[in-house]
Specification:
12 strands, eight-stranded parallel barrel, alpha/beta
Length: 242
Amino acid sequence: MRIIPAIDIIDGQCVRLSKGDYSTKKIYNENPLEIAKQYEDHGIEYLHLVDLDGAKASHIVNHKVLETIATKTNLKIDFGGGLKTDEDLRIAFESGAGQITGGSIAVKKPDVFKSWLTKFGADKIILGADANNEKIAISGWLEESDEELIPFVQNYMEDGVSYVICTDIAKDGMLEGPSFDLYEKMLKQLPKVKLIASGGISQFDELPKLAELGCEGTIIGKAIYENKISLKQLENYIVESI
């Protein structure tokens, strides 16, 4: 299972929110590159970079942060937050993203999202399936849609999607543990999905459980910043997994 630390950006700074609520913003570091280099120094190969300004503005904003991290580390970066147009994707990929994540766009403009799968290839496009009570949430989680999580993902898998990041919003940033039951249900019903678990990771021993369920990766955010999981633990886990 891939370990994918998260860096969320507002005004060029590393922040974390609770349940996606911008009013809960907590700044952890003013220099995202510093954090990214720490990850790389501990054997981490992947990074989930979220442009929270972009999510609010509905277009890419923090591409310079992406470019800085991509040029000054060897991390494989997936980038998301407010990507709405082919131009947004062009900027993201040219700035160094290896993959992009589309969430709201997949609900609001499915034709655009499907065209990305064709233009850029399914291996470069991740479906962001953020859910509240198993209903898809959109617009930086400010809105809940009528889309049911599992049928939503299943439909897109039929269009070629293989990578899916699923965040249970009720768990995100709360350090109360991930949604094991939800992920187990998804993996049973969608056995071919490359499921990346996100939200609620709070202690190291949750990681082997997610791996056992069959998650392809897991995104870890606040647990690292709050020292609930150490980078040394993650380094050892990665070494033992090889």
